[in-house]
What does this fold into?
Amino acid sequence: MGLKLMSLLCKANILLCALFVEALVSSAAVSDSSNSLDLSSDFYSLSCPNVELLVKETVSSASSFDPTLPGKLLRLLFHDCVVEGCDGSVLIQGNGTERSDPANKSLGGFEVVESAKRLLEVLCPATVSCADILVLAARDAVEIAGGPPVRVPLGRKDGLNSSASNVRPNMVDTSFSLDEMVRLFSSKGLSLDDLVILSGAHTIGLAHCNAFSDRFKEDSKGNLVPIDSSLEESYALDLAKKCKAGASSSVTVSNDPVTASFFDNQYYKNLLDGKGLFQSDSVLISDSRTKGKVETFSENQDSFFDGWGDSFVRLSSVGVKTGDEGEIRVSCSSMNG
It folds into this structure.
């Protein structure tokens, strides 16, 4: 019936014909977005065509005032995706939520996601999910810090559940062995190569001293003494000095001691030099399954960047909600009433 009506309209009136075609296209787009289980890079091409530009401008503006934001946004996305999937559940405030768990207390970047959301609610109300905004913000943060541009599929819905009890069983601990990390990544559909590549996120960002305290012990005088021989001596002593006993729990150090604010392949060079901050970093060069990849990326940044794009897309596609599995939140910090 639609084709017959369109044919008659096109014969009778060119303008009505054009309007009818536009209506059919818009209807199809709405139907696809609400029923398809697949994400699409042009998901918002009709409903909010400037979404990527608006998010990027928000991240860029905020990063100009706080250069630590790229690392925070990238870490925020990882903590979201590995727990309930990439559904924005880590953004929810309140007792008993993912965000309230001690493992997430040091997360940052929430205000950037919320700022982008407020802007989009004015221009494209009830259209763009917080989950998609977070993915775009983390993607853009990497590029702003010097990393590669990545085209990401969109169309995620915001999750309807956020529970602190789900955090610890799904979170990578900085003291994990390679086998422990492989098991966790595999449970998310991520490969060993993804593990090595995504670990490269530690080329930016900060870490609190307690995140690597297992690599030191306190002597009788209250000084920290390195006990992990895989750490390069001068680097270990520098960390011990910065994180001396009695230091504030808010003390942080750069994940990458060489190019802290730049997304590059320096992380892999650091590993080979014995300057991996976490135990979970250092194990990548002590195992034959991953050492070769580390060496390749340390020598060839383009190879790392090429791999980063594919691995980032896979990470940002973990456990996504689409269709009726979620909602479009009005505010990223609370579920719709």
